[in-house]
Amino acid sequence: MPKDRHRHCYAPGCRTGYAGVEATRKLSLFSVPKDEARKKLWEKNLHRADKPLDSKCAVCELHFEDRYILREYVHIVGGKEVRIPRGVPALASDAVPTILPNAPKYLSKAAPVGRAPRKREASTKLQGARRKKRREESPCSTTALQDELESND
Protein backbone atom coordinates (compact mmCIF):
# COMPACT_ATOMS: atom_id res chain seq x y z
CA MET A 1 0.00 0.00 0.00
CA PRO A 2 1.56 3.34 -0.98
CA LYS A 3 2.28 5.70 1.90
CA ASP A 4 0.86 8.65 0.01
CA ARG A 5 -2.44 6.88 -0.67
CA HIS A 6 -5.50 9.10 -0.68
CA ARG A 7 -7.49 8.91 2.53
CA HIS A 8 -10.82 9.54 0.82
CA CYS A 9 -13.00 7.53 -1.54
CA TYR A 10 -12.46 7.74 -5.31
CA ALA A 11 -16.10 6.86 -6.20
CA PRO A 12 -18.14 9.72 -7.72
CA GLY A 13 -20.22 11.63 -5.18
CA CYS A 14 -18.86 9.72 -2.18
CA ARG A 15 -17.78 11.86 0.79
CA THR A 16 -16.09 9.10 2.84
CA GLY A 17 -12.78 10.26 4.29
CA TYR A 18 -13.21 13.97 3.59
CA ALA A 19 -12.75 16.49 6.41
CA GLY A 20 -15.98 17.80 7.87
CA VAL A 21 -17.95 14.64 7.07
CA GLU A 22 -19.08 12.83 10.18
CA ALA A 23 -19.52 9.10 9.73
CA THR A 24 -21.68 6.98 12.03
CA ARG A 25 -18.96 4.30 11.90
CA LYS A 26 -15.46 4.10 10.50
CA LEU A 27 -15.51 2.82 6.94
CA SER A 28 -12.66 0.82 5.43
CA LEU A 29 -10.86 2.06 2.32
CA PHE A 30 -9.50 -0.50 -0.13
CA SER A 31 -6.57 -0.02 -2.49
CA VAL A 32 -6.84 -0.39 -6.24
CA PRO A 33 -5.79 -3.86 -7.50
CA LYS A 34 -2.35 -4.21 -9.08
CA ASP A 35 -3.68 -6.52 -11.82
CA GLU A 36 -4.30 -4.37 -14.93
CA ALA A 37 -7.40 -6.31 -16.07
CA ARG A 38 -9.14 -5.91 -12.69
CA LYS A 39 -8.00 -2.30 -12.44
CA LYS A 40 -9.66 -1.53 -15.80
CA LEU A 41 -12.84 -3.23 -14.61
CA TRP A 42 -12.82 -1.06 -11.47
CA GLU A 43 -12.28 2.06 -13.57
CA LYS A 44 -15.14 1.10 -15.89
CA ASN A 45 -17.55 0.50 -12.98
CA LEU A 46 -16.65 3.71 -11.15
CA HIS A 47 -17.46 6.02 -14.13
CA ARG A 48 -14.92 8.79 -13.47
CA ALA A 49 -13.81 10.55 -16.65
CA ASP A 50 -12.40 13.55 -14.78
CA LYS A 51 -9.70 11.67 -12.85
CA PRO A 52 -7.70 8.55 -13.77
CA LEU A 53 -7.67 5.60 -11.38
CA ASP A 54 -4.11 5.11 -10.13
CA SER A 55 -2.33 3.18 -7.37
CA LYS A 56 -2.83 6.04 -4.88
CA CYS A 57 -6.63 5.90 -5.11
CA ALA A 58 -8.86 4.02 -2.68
CA VAL A 59 -12.52 2.98 -2.68
CA CYS A 60 -14.59 2.66 0.51
CA GLU A 61 -16.60 -0.37 1.56
CA LEU A 62 -19.93 1.28 0.69
CA HIS A 63 -19.30 0.48 -2.99
CA PHE A 64 -18.84 -3.28 -2.60
CA GLU A 65 -21.41 -6.00 -2.02
CA ASP A 66 -21.11 -7.61 1.43
CA ARG A 67 -20.06 -10.94 -0.08
CA TYR A 68 -16.81 -9.33 -1.34
CA ILE A 69 -15.73 -7.94 2.06
CA LEU A 70 -13.91 -10.47 4.25
CA ARG A 71 -14.42 -9.60 7.92
CA GLU A 72 -13.40 -12.96 9.41
CA TYR A 73 -10.68 -15.56 9.04
CA VAL A 74 -12.21 -19.01 8.48
CA HIS A 75 -10.27 -22.09 9.63
CA ILE A 76 -11.13 -25.76 10.06
CA VAL A 77 -9.91 -27.04 13.44
CA GLY A 78 -10.72 -30.60 14.49
CA GLY A 79 -13.34 -30.91 11.76
CA LYS A 80 -15.19 -27.78 12.90
CA GLU A 81 -15.29 -24.40 11.23
CA VAL A 82 -13.75 -21.67 13.38
CA ARG A 83 -14.28 -17.98 12.57
CA ILE A 84 -11.92 -15.35 13.92
CA PRO A 85 -12.72 -11.65 13.38
CA ARG A 86 -10.16 -9.74 11.30
CA GLY A 87 -8.71 -6.55 12.71
CA VAL A 88 -8.97 -4.86 9.32
CA PRO A 89 -11.43 -6.04 6.65
CA ALA A 90 -10.00 -7.28 3.35
CA LEU A 91 -11.43 -7.65 -0.15
CA ALA A 92 -12.00 -10.95 -1.93
CA SER A 93 -9.76 -11.48 -4.94
CA ASP A 94 -12.69 -11.07 -7.38
CA ALA A 95 -14.17 -7.94 -5.73
CA VAL A 96 -15.37 -5.16 -8.03
CA PRO A 97 -17.13 -1.95 -6.91
CA THR A 98 -20.70 -2.13 -8.20
CA ILE A 99 -22.74 0.01 -5.79
CA LEU A 100 -22.77 3.77 -6.39
CA PRO A 101 -25.48 5.18 -4.07
CA ASN A 102 -24.68 8.84 -4.79
CA ALA A 103 -24.69 8.42 -8.57
CA PRO A 104 -27.65 7.99 -10.95
CA LYS A 105 -29.31 4.57 -10.67
CA TYR A 106 -28.34 3.47 -14.16
CA LEU A 107 -24.65 3.59 -13.13
CA SER A 108 -25.13 1.28 -10.15
CA LYS A 109 -25.32 -2.45 -10.78
CA ALA A 110 -26.97 -4.09 -7.79
CA ALA A 111 -26.96 -7.85 -7.52
CA PRO A 112 -29.86 -9.36 -9.47
CA VAL A 113 -32.70 -10.58 -7.30
CA GLY A 114 -34.48 -13.72 -8.41
CA ARG A 115 -38.13 -13.30 -9.23
CA ALA A 116 -40.85 -15.93 -9.28
CA PRO A 117 -42.06 -16.78 -12.78
CA ARG A 118 -45.35 -15.21 -13.78
CA LYS A 119 -48.39 -17.44 -13.81
CA ARG A 120 -50.32 -17.41 -17.06
CA GLU A 121 -53.91 -18.32 -17.67
CA ALA A 122 -54.75 -20.94 -20.25
CA SER A 123 -55.02 -19.38 -23.69
CA THR A 124 -58.53 -20.79 -24.30
CA LYS A 125 -59.92 -18.81 -21.35
CA LEU A 126 -58.35 -15.60 -22.59
CA GLN A 127 -59.55 -15.95 -26.17
CA GLY A 128 -63.21 -15.95 -25.16
CA ALA A 129 -62.81 -12.95 -22.84
CA ARG A 130 -60.76 -10.85 -25.25
CA ARG A 131 -62.89 -11.27 -28.39
CA LYS A 132 -64.49 -8.12 -29.63
CA LYS A 133 -68.23 -8.02 -29.38
CA ARG A 134 -70.04 -7.10 -32.57
CA ARG A 135 -72.87 -4.67 -32.35
CA GLU A 136 -76.21 -5.87 -33.58
CA GLU A 137 -77.01 -2.62 -35.33
CA SER A 138 -74.63 0.25 -35.68
CA PRO A 139 -75.74 3.85 -36.30
CA CYS A 140 -73.70 3.83 -39.51
CA SER A 141 -75.10 0.62 -40.93
CA THR A 142 -76.59 0.68 -44.45
CA THR A 143 -80.11 -0.21 -43.31
CA ALA A 144 -80.22 2.70 -40.85
CA LEU A 145 -79.05 5.13 -43.57
CA GLN A 146 -81.59 3.80 -46.08
CA ASP A 147 -84.43 4.17 -43.56
CA GLU A 148 -83.37 7.77 -42.86
CA LEU A 149 -83.20 8.65 -46.58
CA GLU A 150 -86.66 7.18 -47.21
CA SER A 151 -88.17 9.17 -44.33
CA ASN A 152 -86.71 12.42 -45.76
CA ASP A 153 -88.34 11.81 -49.19
Characterization of this structure:
With 153 residues, this protein is an alpha+beta fold. It has one domain (1-111). It is 20% helix and 18% strand. The protein is built from 3 helices and 4 strands. The chain has helices spanning 36-46, 123-130, 142-152; strands at residues 29-31, 58-60, 69-77, 80-91. The strands form 2 sheets. It has a two-stranded antiparallel sheet with strand order 1-2. The protein is elongated and about 100 Å long. The chain starts with 28 loop residues before the first strand and ends with a helix. The model has no long low-confidence stretch (mean pLDDT 78).
List the helices and strands and how they pair.
Blueprint: E1 29-31, H1 36-46, E2 58-60, E3 69-77, E4 80-91, H2 123-130, H3 142-152
Antiparallel strand pairs: 1-2, 3-4
Structural class computed from helices and strand pairing: alpha+beta
Topology, number of strands: 4
The residue-averaged pLDDT reads: 78
Q: How many helices in DSSP terms?
A: 3
Helix content: 10-25%
Number of structurally distinct domains: 1
Strand content: 15-25%
The gyration radius over C-alpha positions equals 32 Å
Q: N-to-C terminal Cα separation, in Å? A: 102 Å
Q: Let me know the largest β-sheet.
A: 2 strands, antiparallel
Order of helices and strands: EHEEEHH
Low-confidence stretches: none
Q: What is the 3D form?
A: elongated
**Strands ordered across the widest β-sheet:** 1-2
Keywords: DNA-binding, Metal-binding, Zinc, Zinc-finger
Region (Disordered): 107-153
Pfam families: THAP
GO molecular function, one term: zinc ion binding
